[in-house]
């Protein structure tokens, strides 16, 4: 490019000399002593406008180049230069346009990849946060932002955004030692536990991934409690059986009445263990993902009447009256065998703990899209603080009384799972001294639900 410019300037200089010679020969051939002076002045007069025009043209194009570079530096990769005449500046302009086009393509590809990465990280169930080498938040995904709220922002120190000491310790170890650190954070969100994994980044800084293990921890705690409760429930009757059997073996010729009494105790505890085993198997069945119901349309009134008829034998010798408080004739979707188990557990529970009320009332009423069934006793009732937990496995309001009555502590848990498998819900209402009522719902059959809606619209 420099060589071409030099050649053009040389050509321009020779052109000026030719002009100078021609002007001298034509205009000033008679005044030779002034020829050089005047010819130089005329050549200068012609050269100055030409030089000014050329300089202005070059200046405008260079200003366009400067503006183009400024727009590129500000991120406007769509900027382009208009090609001038076919000269050296045109080659430069074309090269700059090609460079801008390549930068635009590269930036678009990088932005597309960044968006894809951000989308993938936002779709994760784990919370992710990237930290600069100085400890500031570089980026966080949607899960982390929902969890931390407005406290976590780009450019803000992580220590001001997440105050969990375990998370901060893991990030600090990854930043300072370049090591992968793990921990367990429990103060980031109320009632939630996170497994923290912090690792250094190749470009500096660190990234922390937080996996919510709250449900896993709860399941593990429930498993430990379940094993402990089962062990305790089995140990008591086993200890009793073992003790009485040893006594009988040590004195085979003892009093027949005493032996009969001991055998009665052994039989009672064996029956208790048998009921516990049956309830454990029933609970395992209804909690299993493979638990299947054979649901079909059944009249709500038929469910209640069948329950009263089939379970009436439980209350014959107890002095408790089993009352039918009415039920609608609409169809509900239910598994008949499973509902017999539900009513059986609820009525047996009412008989054990509400016997003093002398009556148990069973009935149902129609709601908008479902039927609500009720089993109510009129015994001593349950304190309010126990109502939310009585459907838990092995939870007892009065442990001593429950064991005396032979309860396993699993009946209401079984009922809850069966009702939920039907798509319904269950709750308990009670007031001390006024008895307890268990309410559960079953969905209406398709035709019954449509009829109920049309009836409401006509009303």
Structure description:
The protein has 459 residues and is α+β, with helices and mostly antiparallel strands. The protein folds into four domains: 107 residues, no CATH class; 91 residues, PAS domain (Beta-Lactamase, 2-Layer Sandwich); 67 residues, Helix Hairpins (Orthogonal Bundle), CATH 1.10.287; 162 residues, Histidine kinase-like ATPase, C-terminal domain (Heat Shock Protein 90), CATH 3.30.565. α1 packs antiparallel against α2. The chain is elongated and about 160 Å long. The N terminus is likely disordered.
Q: Compute the CA-based radius of gyration.
A: 46 Å
How many β-strand stretches? 12
The CATH architecture of the largest domain is: 2-Layer Sandwich
Termini gap:
93 Å
Order of helices and strands: HHHEEHHHEEEHHEHEEHEEHHEEH
Under CATH, the topology of the largest domain is which? Heat Shock Protein 90
- The CATH homologous superfamily of the largest domain is named Histidine kinase-like ATPase, C-terminal domain
List the helices and strands and how they pair.
Blueprint: H1 2-27, H2 35-73, H3 88-123, E1 127-131, E2 137-140, H4 142-148, H5 158-161, H6 165-177, E3 181-185, E4 194-200, E5 206-212, H7 214-250, H8 256-287, E6 296-299, H9 300-311, E7 321-324, E8 331-334, H10 336-353, E9 359-366, E10 370-377, H11 399-405, H12 411-421, E11 426-430, E12 436-443, H13 446-458
Parallel strand pairs: 7-9
Antiparallel strand pairs: 1-2, 1-5, 3-4, 4-5, 6-8, 9-10, 10-12, 11-12
